[in-house]
Design goal:
280 residues; 11 helices
């Protein structure tokens, strides 16, 4: 596998998009995932089945002197780094969840990944995307669309005025590729977000608009949404929402993306542009 770009999590989401784009360029790439999920290989693009939770097997597959891109869960990379793999370059996805006011297990795993990277002598770039949409297996927007088609109302706390800044999967992949090509991104931690923030209400109403639904957004007190969230766990056919997700509906998630343009040369899509591409 000498001089390969190895992608952990290559069968879905950003990893799959990255694999397909690198395949088109003819660059040697190896995709790793638990299931292939119809991923098409070529002479230059290989696929290896491996459960990334098996860090010892994963370390053996990666070999020496290769470039590693992690698009899977942070704890997989943390455990892999315990084996001190001989990696020439590392680009990894994290998440802006690391900045939340309501830390959960994923937040702890992201911080553990950061700490594990700091103990290694590997040229690394960390990319923290916001909510990613636009690819199979990413279900946040899909959940909104499904509810809009099933229900006449979508409730949000505080009138849905908290800010959110989703990013299209194509922009995430473009950032990964730019980092692989630009050595001045080594040692950087970059936030990857859509062009500008919008409110949750605007996000949901844009999804409703582009799907032609007659659903409406209504404001409900937090305690009522909490009860609804519990009910989604027991009513079949309705997309579920966790209590942590409901809490984060009250939290602004707005970020400056000037650095993406200045350092990577990437101007991300606005949320409206991205949703139009996805839903129309």
């Amino acid at each position: 596998m000498s001089s390969d770009i190895i992608i952990i999590g290559a069968s879905r989401g950003p990893g799959r998009q990255l694999f397909d784009q690198l395949k088109l360029t003819g660059r040697p790439v190896v995709g790793i995932a638990r299931k292939q999920r119809g991923l098409v290989v070529s002479a230059s693009a290989k696929f290896v089945t491996c459960d990334a939770s098996n860090s010892q097997a994963l370390a053996a597959l990666i070999g020496q002197g290769n470039t590693l891109v992690n698009t899977s869960r942070p704890e997989f990379l943390t455990n892999l780094l315990k084996h001190k793999p001989s990696v020439a370059r590392l680009v990894t996805l994290g998440s802006t969840r690391v900045f939340t006011r309501f830390p959960d297990q994923k937040c702890k795993n992201l911080n553990a990944m950061k700490q594990a990277i700091s103990t290694q002598n590997i040229p690394t770039t960390i990319l923290h995307p916001t909510m990613i949409y636009g690819s199979e297996g990413l279900n946040n927007i899909e959940r909104i669309v499904k509810v809009a088609r099933l229900s006449p109302l979508i409730p949000l706390p505080a009138s849905g005025n908290a800010l959110i800044q989703p990013v299209h999967v194509n922009d995430v992949v473009a950032c990964i590729i730019a980092c692989l090509e630009k050595t001045d991104t080594i040692g950087q931690t970059l936030i990857v977000a859509g062009r500008s923030p919008i409110t949750y209400r605007e996000l949901v109403e844009t999804c409703i608009e582009f799907t032609g639904s007659r659903c409406r957004v209504v404001s409900l007190p937090y305690f009522m949404l909490s009860i609804i969230g519990m009910l989604t766990k027991i009513i079949p056919g309705i997309p579920s929402i966790s209590q942590n997700e409901i809490r984060r509906l009250l939290e602004d998630k707005a970020f400056d993306v000037v650095k993406l343009e200045q350092l990577l040369g990437i101007r991300p899509l606005s949320v409206r542009e991205g949703l139009r591409q996805l839903l129309t």
